[in-house]
Design a protein that fits this description.
It contains 12 helices and 12 strands. It has about 375 residues and is of the alpha+beta class. The radius of gyration is 21 Å and the shape is globular. About 15% of the residues have low confidence.
């Protein structure tokens, strides 16, 4: 999804000319893919610590300070390790020339997060590294470390969209084809969705989002003809993510992952897709989209979102209420849905200090004892 988060990746300098990005999106994709191939071929990445190694180092460092723990166990903690680790998208400004090399994934309205499963415990972190929720699973301690990229909905369902680590296998540098294959095959093979929670009363669930391949247009057409997009009652479609099949998992924004609202598909991918789409998606077209056109609408959407977040952050810092101006009141329902952060009741007591590793381990060990 397009996101006003300023998190960057190690490839940022390859595509930070935002003033003309709609004209250079294809070129930035090509450059980024070539860079990924070069890194694989020359094994430059072999000297760089992967996400799994960072997780293990974090645990080792925390062990050293465990003897100095205090009795106070914080209910919310902040992990620098998981901050800015979510792969973010750009708008799709132009139709890719190699559309057959792309996947499409329908995304629900919810909160983007990383679900970290370690030694039988699951902890969800938002994009800023703040813990959102945690619970015990039935996977057991033999299932070591798994990190899933998810949407968490208000119905307490984690919808997995991507896979960073699976049972201590680091997949960040694997291409999208391989990650998506493992996400579906390994979770089914090990019955992870069935064991994600050790109590039916808690209501936590894990589902894997459906995947559609543009090399098989009938698959995509079938997806676009569905309304509602999800079988779960109350789970609404937010938009569509498009993944280049050769893309690594890149921390931060990347042109190899793009985003559209469903009603934008004919304008960007071609009018040939319009007859295949459910007519109710076109009933959701905002008035300003028809007036502005897709490119100007994207810019205006981002501007509104940035202003709303700026006012919210200011209100949080000053302790006041966020005042809604006239422009804010005209913001479309799509903006409200896309930016919706109340998908789950998270504990809003964020803090950050230098002792974050010990506090995280303290809390995980407390949950482990309870489980």
């Amino acid at each position: 999804m397009t996101d006003s988060d300023d998190s960057t990746s190690r490839f940022t300098d390859l595509y930070k000319n935002n003033s003309r990005k709609e004209h250079h999106q294809s070129e930035r994709r090509r450059t980024l893919l070539e860079e990924q191939k070069r890194l694989r071929q020359t094994e430059i990445d072999s000297s760089r610590r992967g996400l799994l190694e960072l997780i293990e180092t974090e645990a080792a460092d925390s062990e050293c300070s465990f003897g100095q723990q205090q009795r106070h166990k914080p209910r919310v903690w902040f992990s620098k390790l998981y901050r800015d680790k979510v792969q973010l998208s750009e708008w799709m400004y132009e139709r890719p020339d190699d559309l057959e090399n792309w996947f499409m994934v329908p995304c629900p309205v919810g909160t983007r997060c990383l679900l970290v499963i370690r030694r039988g415990l699951a902890v969800a972190y938002d994009k800023n590294g703040r813990s959102m929720t945690r619970f015990a699973t039935r996977l057991g301690k033999k299932h070591r470390v798994t990190v899933l990229d998810c949407f968490l909905t208000k119905d307490r369902i984690f919808y997995a969209i991507d896979l960073l680590v699976y049972n201590e296998m680091d997949l960040v540098q694997c291409d999208c084809r391989f990650r998506f294959l493992w996400l579906r095959s390994k979770l089914e093979e090990d019955a992870v969705p069935d064991q994600i929670c050790n109590s039916k009363e808690s209501g936590w669930r894990l589902e894997v989002l459906p995947l559609y391949d543009f090399s098989k247009p009938n698959q995509v057409a079938d997806c676009l003809s569905l309304f509602p997009a999800f079988n779960e009652k109350g789970t609404r479609l937010d938009g569509l993510l498009f993944y280049h099949k050769d893309s690594n998992y890149i921390y931060g924004r990347t042109p190899l992952v793009t985003w559209l609202f469903p009603f934008m598909v004919p304008d960007l991918l071609g009018e040939s897709w319009r007859p295949t789409m459910n007519h109710r998606y076109f009933q959701q077209i905002p008035a300003d989209y028809s007036q502005l056109g897709y490119r100007a609408y994207m810019d205006e959407f981002d501007a509104k979102l940035a202003r709303k977040r700026s006012r919210r952050n200011h209100a949080q810092q000053t302790g006041g209420d966020m005042v809604q101006d006239t422009d804010e009141s005209t913001c479309t329902e799509d903006l409200t849905a896309w930016e919706q952060m109340e998908a789950v009741t998270t504990i809003n007591e964020s803090y950050e200090d230098e002792d974050w590793q010990r506090k995280e381990l303290d809390e995980i060990r407390r949950l482990e004892m309870e489980g």
